Amino acid sequence: MIAPPALFADLYSLTMMRAYREAGMGEEAVFSLYVRKLPPERNFLLSCGVEDVLDAVSNLRFTDDDIAYLRSLGQFPESFLDYMRGFSFKGSIRAIPEGTPVFPDEPLLEVTAPIDQAQLLEAMAINLVQSQTLFASKAARIVLAAQGRPVADFGSRRAHGFDAALSGARAFHVAGVGATSNLLAGRRYGIPVIGTMAHSFVEAFATEAEAFDAMEASFPETVLLVDTYDTLAAVRDLIVRAKTRGPAFRVRGIRLDSGDLAALARDARAMLDEAGLTGVSIFASGGLDEHEIARLVAQSPAIDAFGVGTAMSVSNDVPALDIVYKLVSIGGRGVMKLSSKKKTLPGAKQVFRRFEDDGTIADLLCLAEEQHPGEPLLVEMMRDGGRITPRPALSDIRDRAAAAIAGLPENMRGLACSHASFRVTTSPKLEALTRSVEDHVARMNKSEA
Amino acid sequence: MIAPPALFADLYSLTMMRAYREAGMGEEAVFSLYVRKLPPERNFLLSCGVEDVLDAVSNLRFTDDDIAYLRSLGQFPESFLDYMRGFSFKGSIRAIPEGTPVFPDEPLLEVTAPIDQAQLLEAMAINLVQSQTLFASKAARIVLAAQGRPVADFGSRRAHGFDAALSGARAFHVAGVGATSNLLAGRRYGIPVIGTMAHSFVEAFATEAEAFDAMEASFPETVLLVDTYDTLAAVRDLIVRAKTRGPAFRVRGIRLDSGDLAALARDARAMLDEAGLTGVSIFASGGLDEHEIARLVAQSPAIDAFGVGTAMSVSNDVPALDIVYKLVSIGGRGVMKLSSKKKTLPGAKQVFRRFEDDGTIADLLCLAEEQHPGEPLLVEMMRDGGRITPRPALSDIRDRAAAAIAGLPENMRGLACSHASFRVTTSPKLEALTRSVEDHVARMNKSEA
Fold it and tell me: What tens digit of pLDDT does each residue of A224-253 get?
């Protein structure tokens, strides 16, 4: 759990809060957090980050130091600072549970609260949901590409800071990644940790054999990194080692981190099998992404598991989502932004998910109070500032995600763009509200101009 | 300052530590952190992150909970856990100061310590230096593109987690970004904070005029966001507003966040000037990156300042650097990895920087003990586990960066790829060591094979 400081907010949220209060604007507002566009490199997004938002919001308090800092800015009177000193969030939050496949325009999270309170959450909510959904969505592709072979997270060193590494490890695990190299992520989230040796370990000894001796002496069931000098020579050495040791030989596997991984794995597998070492597994790593993994899986059944680093940790092909936190309703009045490119839909919403006979996902975007066939995706999770759904176990979120991904149309689980496999349509009531708000805004534009 | 937990390490660092200790390998090693390749989208990298590494390393201690977690993994005997319980880093660190332009193969940081101690720092050091150098290097381009116009960081909401947002704001400031929207970054680092209002504020009121009234009532010197409905109509309204108010009108500026920013800024400027409102500034934001800013600067002198978000916060075109932490020496013996693609250079190093007559940067990569003409870039910052250089003031790092960037060759300060404007050559002594280690490794490979 990340319990972020209340000051993780944009200054403009606080200037707006002050102005709202001084203008007597205490009306209830609804803000909706959603992704505007799905990039062609993603067939779906896997929701993640909502649980951290709920924890953060329910613990959100300004410390005396925070208040002193705000005072130092010279923009806030004591009356406002007093209000902030006593601030706690009193609103409600509905959200799509973590581990759910989601599509553009579908609210990942909706906040209902007096407008100044809802405004305060903007930077925090966008940051947590966008980064973690980004991570989970990338990892889901990598896990799908591995077709059941275990995938481990080796990327914490290349993540954008520590939080990204930690929440990344959690999001990857939600998406089906089995283990992480990072000890803190392992401790914090209970994710299995993995790792044995780096090239530097082999280089630190006078010979590779001495390095393997040392690692085996301390960790008999280790995985040996065999590509420091000559991969297949190291595999031959391993076979000699196994024969010499007899039953005392318990090395679990070898790791290949460079070269033609498919060819090396195939040759190593053949050599190991011929020597009777069928139980020695082959791990592959080194600059892998979902496309490379798909290629390796197609070329070589010899690779048993993958370690993935940078590509997953920074979501390298899509390093940010087009995600927004938009006012959709105030005082019961629908609100929308009219712009050819950035049109928004008014009103608090719900999404009902159904599957067509051919597997196509047919999501219906409607007003929050509507009822339709299918599974409603948004769930009330916070009311009057308190969580009403407990934080689920990570394993439950992971199971939910696995089941949901397994139920997606076949195309959507591949790497090629298949945006035709889902449709998000709007209900007649939402359309009617949209038209009515459009008319209102257009009339206002005219009167303003 | 970020004081990270000791457990921000990869499991393999600890398995190697145990194996080193049990093999009696206490020899002094040197690890070198450097970038292997400069992407064509960057003409230089701006070093950043080293100060956080120094703080983290000098405070690195394992808590009782950390030890209990390590015990729970079932891979570490009590003798090793006792050692970790009493662990503190005793080595030395040399590094290139933050805010220095750097190039491939140049060590950003070198750690000298008993090999198990040096190994422990890997994930932490790579994470902090790669992310912050990535951020600073992207921001430097954006600041250069703005040609003296102020740039503000609006991106904390799209950063990969909170740490990325905070260390990003700091790195952007080092690179010349003037202000941040994030209050916590402002408080933590003393960076000026900026921000007034979002579109939601305008939409929350019945009319744009009422929203502007409210903001102006609370913040007379505000910046009004004028593109919610019709940008130029809002500017006309502002002019009427100014005439009505007379001397009480103190609005500082307007912000444009959508549409044809160059054309809108030009028209708005003309209208404001004609009305005598020459003091009202024009801020531009909305999906900007260095290329868009360069285009706007070329097209329209009317834009006074820029707000930049996602592109800077995730370094969208280069979301990760090819950065490594490599063993280069152990027990005084040079170490290198021999591979056509990933060749490393052995030995602890220094870099001497000189400028050719035509401005080209001629960096000499040499052994740490060598002396050559030019400015030595690496400085000893930690000895026997303690900092020997105090953490510099952020403003000093920023000034150093500004001076260094101003001294770069003209081409390098543009956006087009100009990798010909620097050369990194190796000294004869480094070359001799490289050949000798190559021979040794080649002999060993042969004897192993």
Answer: 999 999 999 999 999 999 999 999 999 999
B21 and B78 share one domain: yes
- Same domain? B278 vs B325: no
Question: Among B284, B310, B336, where does a domain finish?
Answer: B284
Position B312 confidence tier, pLDDT thresholds 50, 70, 90: very high
**How many domains are there within chain B?**
2
In a domain, B187, yes or no: no
**Pair A114, A41 in one domain:** yes
Residue B189: CB atoms within 10 Å: 17
Q: Which pTM value belongs to this model?
A: 0.97
Q: Which residues of A touch B208 (CB under 8 A)?
A: 444, 448
- The tens digit of pLDDT for each residue in B371-408 reads 999 999 999 999 999 999 999 999 999 999 999 999 99
**Interface contact B114, partner A, CB < 8 A:** no
Render pLDDT for A32-78 as a digit per residue (tens, 0 to 9). 999 999 999 999 999 999 999 999 999 999 999 999 999 999 999 99
Query: Chain A interface, mutation test: which of B12, B122, B191, B337, most A Cβ atoms within 10 Å?
Result: B12
ipTM of the complex: 0.97
| CB-based contacts of A367, cutoff 8 Å, min separation 6 | A347, A348, A349, A350, A427, A429, A430, A433
Cβ contact B127–A161 (<8 Å):
yes
Q: Which domain holds residue B414?
A: 11-136+318-448
Q: B184 in a domain, yes or no?
A: no
Predicted confidence band of residue B2 (pLDDT cuts 50, 70, 90) = very low
Q: How many residues does chain A have?
A: 449
Which amino acid, residue B133?
T
Rg (CA), chain A: 26
Which token pair is A241?
């080692």
Q: Is residue A175 part of a domain?
A: no
β-strand pairing of A109-114 with A28-35: antiparallel
Closest CA–CA distance from residue B12 to any residue of chain A (Å): 4
Q: What is the pLDDT of residues A343-383, one digit of tens each?
A: 789 999 999 999 999 999 999 999 999 999 999 999 999 99
Same-domain check for residues B323 and B425: yes
Q: Which of B261, B284, B307 is the last residue of a domain?
A: B284
Asked if B98 and B47 touch (Cβ cutoff 8 Å), the reply is yes
**Are residues A35 and A99 part of one domain?**
yes
pLDDT at residue A15 tops 70: yes
What is the band of A442 on the pLDDT scale with cuts at 50, 70, 90?
A: confident
Residues of B in contact with A191 (CB under 8 A): none
Q: Is residue A103 in some structural domain?
A: yes
Residues B272 and B330 in one domain: no
Q: Do B157 and A12 touch (CB under 8 A)?
A: no
Chain A residue with minimum CA distance to B225: A12
Identify the helix (H) or strand (E) that includes residue A31.
Answer: strand A28-35
Indicate if A17 and A131 belong to the same structural domain: yes
What are the C-alpha distances in Å from B417 to residues A29, A420, B148, B278, B411? 48, 39, 21, 38, 8
Within an 8 Å CB–CB cutoff, is residue A217 touching chain B?
Answer: yes
The domain that contains A51 carries what CATH number? 3.20.140.10
Indicate whether B236 pLDDT > 60: yes
Quick one: B117 and B213 in the same domain?
A: no
State the DSSP string of B156-221.
Answer: GGGSSSHHHHHHHHHHHHHTT--EESBHHHHHHH---B-----HHHHHHSSSHHHHHHHHHHH-TT
* Contact between chains at B163 and A167 (C-beta distance less than 8 A): no
Q: Is A271 on the interface with B (CB under 8 A)?
A: no
Q: Is the CB of residue B164 less than 8 Å away from at least one CB of chain A?
A: yes
Residues forming a β-bridge with B349: B367
In this predicted model, what pLDDT tens digit does every residue of B157-197 receive, in sequence order? 999 999 999 999 999 999 999 999 999 999 999 999 999 99
Q: Residue A214's domain is classified under what CATH number?
A: 3.20.20.70
